[in-house]
Amino acid sequence: MTIKQSTERPSMSEDKVSDVEVHSFVQPSGQYPSARLPARSILVTGASGFLGANLLHDLLAGTAGNIFCLVRGSTEADGLLKVRSALQSQQLWSNVFQGRTGIVIGNLARPMLGMSQTAFDFLANEIDTIYHIAAHVNLLLPYRALHGTNVCGTQELLHLAMTGRPKRFHHVSSVAALGWPLPDEVSSSSERFRLSRPSSFTDGYSESKWAAEQLVNAAFEKGLAASIYRPGLITGHSITGVSNPQDSFSLLIKACTQIGLAPEVPSSIRFTPVDFVSRFILELSEQASSPGRAFHLIGPSSLSWRAIAQILLECGHIKDIVPYADWERHAYVVAKNMPDSFEATIAVLPHILDLGTGNEDSAGPLGKHPATGPSGSSCEQAKKLANLYVTYLSSVA
C-alpha cells in the first residue's frame, strides 16, 4: 500500500509550549474502548531509525501480527528499502521477515500524517496498536524547529489512534521530558504518567518531548489506552556492539579520537543498550496494566567517564587525558578543518556527559531484567559494554 503525502501545513502554533492543546482527536465524552491483546495489526513510526529498527525486529520475531511502518519517501519500494537497510546495517535482518512489513508513505509533520482521507480512514480501521518512536532529535535546534515532527506528529497519530478501530498507543518519549537537571526519580520507581511543567528546559528537544506527552496525557484522560516510555541515553547493542554513529555517546567518542585527547571530567555514563530498551517496551506494552503508566527505561550499569577515557587511551585511540579547558582549546583548533557537525558536538559535550550521569552503584529498572547482558558486577558489565562500543565505533570510523 502506497499513501501519498499532503502538501498542507500543520495548524498548531509553533511558538510556545503553552500553545499545546488537544483538538478534534479527543472524544467529547465517555470512554474509548480499549483494543484487545495481543495486537493483530501494528503501526510503527521511526522503523528506519536506531531504536525503531530494533523494536521492529523484536515485533517481527516475537509477534504474529501484521506490521505497517510509517516512512517518509516517494514510493512504497523506497520506504521498504529504507527500513530493510536499517535492519541490515544493525545486523537485525533475517530472510524470514520477507513480506511481513507493509509500508505506509507519510510525514509526521503534515495533517493526517500526509495521507489522503481515504488512506487515513483505511489505516484507522485496520490497525489496533501504535508504537510511536519517530522523533527529530537535535539538542541545538530551538523548540519551534522541532515542533512540527515531535509535537504535531504526535497530535496526528493520536487523531489516528482515536479514529475507527479501538487502539493501544505506545509513546516513546525521553527522560529529557523531565526537565533539567534530571530529578532523582529517574532511577527510582516513582514514574509519573503526567508531568508538571519543569522549571526549565536546556534545549528545544526536551521541551518538545514534554509537550508531546501533554497530548498523550489528554488523550488518555478521554479514554485512549496510552502508555509512555522514557529511555535514558540509548547506547549500542549489548551483544553486537552496533551503535548509532549519530547518537551523543558515539559522537563524543568520535570527537575524542579525532582530537587524540579525552577531557578529564567528573561524570559517569549510564549505558542503556538499545536491545534492552526495545525488549522492555515490547514486554511492557503487552501487559494489560500498562495503559495510564509511564516507564523510565534506564540502563543497569554506569561507568565513570575517566574509565571510558582510559579504555580509549589503552586501545591507542587517544594520546592523553587532559583537563577539560585544554581539551576544548584543542578541539576548536581541530574543528577549523572539520565539518560543522564536529563543532556542534563540542558545543553539546557538557550536555552529553550530564545526560549520562549516574551513580556506579545504582541500578535502574533495566537492571531487573533476567537477561541484562554481560555477566558480573554493575561496574564489570559497564566496562564490557564500553569496550564493546569502542571496538565497534573504531571499526566503522
Walkthrough of the structure:
This protein has helices at 50-62, 76-89, 117-126, 143-161, 204-221, 248-259, 274-285, 305-314, 324-335, 340-347, 349-355, 378-396; strands at 41-45, 66-71, 101-105, 129-132, 168-172, 225-231, 234-235, 261-264, 268-273, 294-297, 301-304, 320-323. With 397 residues, the protein is α/β, with parallel strands linked by helices. The protein has two domains: 39-235 and 274-299, NAD(P)-binding Rossmann-like Domain (Rossmann fold, 3-Layer(aba) Sandwich), CATH 3.40.50.720; 248-269 and 302-396, no CATH class. It has a seven-stranded parallel sheet with strand order 3-2-1-4-5-6-10, with helices on both faces. A three-stranded mixed sheet has the order 7-9-11. Helix 1 packs across helix 7 (274-285). It is globular and about 60 Å long.
Q: Gist?
A:
This protein is α/β, with parallel strands linked by helices and 397 residues long. The protein has helices at residues 50-62, 76-89, 117-126, 143-161, 204-221, 248-259, 274-285, 305-314, 324-335, 340-347, 349-355, 378-396, and strands spanning 41-45, 66-71, 101-105, 129-132, 168-172, 225-231, 234-235, 261-264, 268-273, 294-297, 301-304, 320-323.
- Say how many strands there are: 12
| Gross geometry | globular
Number of domains: 2
Q: Strand share of the residues?
A: 5-15%
SSE pattern: EHEHEHEHEHEEHEEHEEHEHHHH
CATH architecture of the largest domain: 3-Layer(aba) Sandwich
Strand order of the largest sheet: 3-2-1-4-5-6-10
The proportion of residues forming helix, as a percent range, comes to: 25-40%
- For the terminal residues, how far apart are their CA atoms? 38 Å
Stretches with pLDDT under 50, minimum 5 residues: 1-16, 357-375
Q: Could you tell me the mean pLDDT?
A: 83
Q: What class, by secondary structure content? A: alpha/beta
- The Rg value, from CA coordinates, equals 21 Å
In the CATH scheme, the class of the largest domain would be: Alpha Beta
- The CATH topology of the largest domain: Rossmann fold
Continuous helix count: 12
Q: CATH superfamily of the largest domain, please?
A: NAD(P)-binding Rossmann-like Domain
Largest sheet: 7 strands, parallel
